[in-house]
Structure formats: structure tokens, C-alpha cells
Amino acid sequence: MKQSRFNQKVYWVIGASSGIGKQLVISMSQLSCRLIISARNTNALDELKSQYQKNDNIEVLPIDLSSNYEQLLDSSQKAYQIHQQLDGIFLVGGISQRAAFEDMKLSTFETIMKVNFWGALHITKACLPFLKQSKDPMIVCINSVQGKMGIPDRTAYAASKHALLGFMDSLRAELYPYNIQVTSILPGYVKTDLGKNALQADGSTQGKSEDSKGGISVEKAAHDILHYASEGKSEAIIGRPREQLAVYIKRFFPALLEKIVRKKS
Ligand SMILES: NC(=O)c1ccc[n+]([C@@H]2O[C@H](COP(=O)([O-])OP(=O)(O)OC[C@H]3O[C@@H](n4cnc5c(N)ncnc54)[C@H](OP(=O)(O)O)[C@@H]3O)[C@@H](O)[C@H]2O)c1
Hints:
Belongs to the short-chain dehydrogenases/reductases (SDR) family. The protein has eight helices and seven strands; from the N terminus they run βαβαβαβαβαβαβαα. With about 260 residues, it is α/β, with parallel strands linked by helices. It has one domain: Rossmann fold (3-Layer(aba) Sandwich). Strands 3-2-1-4-5-6-7 form a seven-stranded parallel beta sheet, with helices on both faces. β1, α1 and β2 form a beta-alpha-beta unit. The site of NADP nicotinamide-adenine-dinucleotide phosphate has 30 residues, from α1.
């Protein structure tokens, strides 16, 4: 990791209360940067701040990514005003799904799209004027290998991540003249509560932990995210070799991947 890239910078980590986002905060709190940390669970954010802050380098700003643009614009302005500086946003907040499309309430589908896609889009739009003021700005978006493929019972999740990947690809090209780095990270399985927090057909959370099938640790995920972000990568798949392989099978042998994925239903 090029640690010097993060020196004296201010980053906003959204989705910082658990899993990958929490570990990113823990890892970044050791670097010479200042952090604004956001999610809905204020207690978890306060605890993270009290455990890991050094020299007042962490500030808490609660937000709900399913809020409307005006509310997220207001939060983005507050995030900037804390230090009158914003060098990067880490868009980590997200929610998964465990339900067949046919059974799903449309409102559940919409919630997943709101949090995973619209929330990230609204924050990005609101923060662009601030990022343009930075000498070395970055947008780091935690996508998923499901931004490139779909598996059963993940229609909304895969749709939101495909939309996010296309959005970030197009934005990267638009922002090139402004030197704003746009990095999409596509994790495979990471050992977090994503499955436990996933929405069922009626919109309730699954509530039980899942076997994360030998997924990588949050420490490894955060390390790799910071590595690829500091290297200025546009896109990186992180996770076990099998998930990286799946993306290549999808690209070069799509019919084979369809067969593999069908067996998962
Ligand atoms: N774990 C994996 O295997 C895996 C694989 C591929 C991609 N990812 C992606 O990685 C990201 C982080 O997930 P994770 O695995 O770390 O899961 P997690 O432990 O469930 O963390 C999800 C984070 O998103 C936040 N969040 C959810 N809904 C929100 C809302 N409405 N407003 C604001 N924040 C919200 C949560 O905070 P609050 O509940 O406090 O709001 C929490 O901080 C997600 O985008 C996920 O799609 C994970």
C-alpha cells in the first residue's frame, strides 16, 4: 500500500458501523489521515470512535443512505464543513437480499436499490464540488462480484451492483479531466454480517448468521481495498481465487457460468 497517498487527507467512510467499513476505519485510523464515519447505528460509530481515535482524527456523522437527495446533500455539506476539506469518499454501505424475485415485495426491491445504488449516487453528486477542490481526490466504491454476474435470490442486489458499476465506469471517464480517481472494488465472500442483515421478501432482515463459505477476513478485505485505492486502480476484484475465476468465466465462457449458477438455486 502507498501509505503516503493518504497523508494529511480527509476521508468520509459511509457504512462504517460494521464489517468491511468498520475494518477500513480501524486500518485507516493508523494512517496520517482524518476520518468522518457514517451509518445508521450511532452507538456502533461512537464505540468505534472511542476505541480507535488518535488526536481527534475520527468524527461521527450518522446518515441513512435510503434518505432523499436533499437530506444526503445536507449530510455531505456537514461532512465537508467538519474540516473544510474532503479528499475522498469510501462508499461501503450496502444491504443484500435473500428472496426469490416472484415472492418479493416491490418495496423490498426498492429499498435495496435506494441504499446500494441511489444512496451512493446521491452522496457522490453532493460531494463532487468538494472533491474537485482536493489535490488528490478519490471515490472508492465497494461493489461486488455480483456487479458482473447474478445468482438466484439476489435480483435486487445484483441489479443495484450492476447499476453502480456502470455508473462508476461512466463517471470515471467524465471525471478524468478533473483528476478524480474512481475505484470500484468487487469483493467475493468476506466474513461479515452481510447475510445476517440481508432483506427477505417482506423486507424483514434474515437475522441469522450464514456460513460465509470460507470467505476472506475483513482485515484482508480492508488491506486489499486500501492497496488498490492507493495504487489508483479503476477496478479490482478481491476475494478467493474461485470468485475471481467466476468473473473471468462469466466474461469468456458465459454459458458455463450460467450452468454453475443455476445449480445454486
Ligand atoms: N461481505 C461480503 O461477502 C461482501 C461481498 C461483496 C460485496 N460486499 C459489499 O460490501 C459492503 C459492506 O458490506 P459488509 O459485508 O461489511 O456488510 P455489513 O457488515 O452488513 O455492513 C453493512 C454496512 O452498511 C451500512 N448500511 C446498511 N444500510 C444502510 C443505510 N440505509 N444507511 C447507511 N448505512 C447503511 C451498515 O450500517 P448501519 O446498519 O449501521 O446503517 C453497515 O455499516 C456492501 O456494499 C456489500 O454489498 C460485501
